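Troubleshooting: if your tokenizer reports a length mismatch, compare your output against this known-good record of 262 residues.
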Amino acid sequence: MRIFLRIHWKTVALLTICLLIFLTGAVWAQAAAGDYRLNVRREFGYNGGDDIRGNFGISVIGDLSRVSAIRYEIDEKPMATQSSGDFSYSFKTSDYANGWHTLNATLTLKDGSSRKTDARRFQFVDSSVEFGAVQGILLRIGGILLILLLVVGGSVLLTRGKFASLPLGAPRTYGFNGGGICARCGRPFSLHFWAAHFGTARFDRCDYCGHWAMVTRRSPAELQAAERAEVVAAQPDPSPAPPVDPQEEFRRKVDQSRYMDE
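Known-good structure output:
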């Protein structure tokens, strides 16, 4: 039984090693076949997904130290051959007919072998497509600004003249949106769901003084510190009154006596 277990575990170990070698070889084969990729970047012009127009640069991503030359092709016809530097090439879409085109690159390696990148397809478009895309973007931006204007304007009208009367230093809950601290009166207040968001800040209104400003969400410790500051501000000034000069007090009484009836 022990001999069988030894043979069994040795067989399992051998099969595992063979499987790992097979998988590693498959990965190496995939890496060798796909270690170069075609890169197309915009230099000047329009790029809307697969729709492009203007000046573009084309290059190959990979270990270029093994490369001696790269031939760039469009629709299986040569565009240019680069044999020095970073092997990149610039082209204009206006030099070709509008419509769909296939770009790829054939690499000649220093060991004499060659590789071909996967092809990429782009649609070369005219100015009308570019103008339509830009117009659509501007319309979307205008719609967003209009929504923000309606939200802010509606909140201003709904909250106009309405102020909270919570006593200074009173405990409060800030809800799901958290709380902020007013830049004018220094009181912490709950951030409103209808406030307009701008990144991490929001344009919101203080519940106590009505001041509108960009407010950020504060931590619980900061909000509690602001609540304690309210209590300190509500207490009377404990500093004693300045001492009275006897001579100044005498002059004041003399001046007052001038207007007394005899």
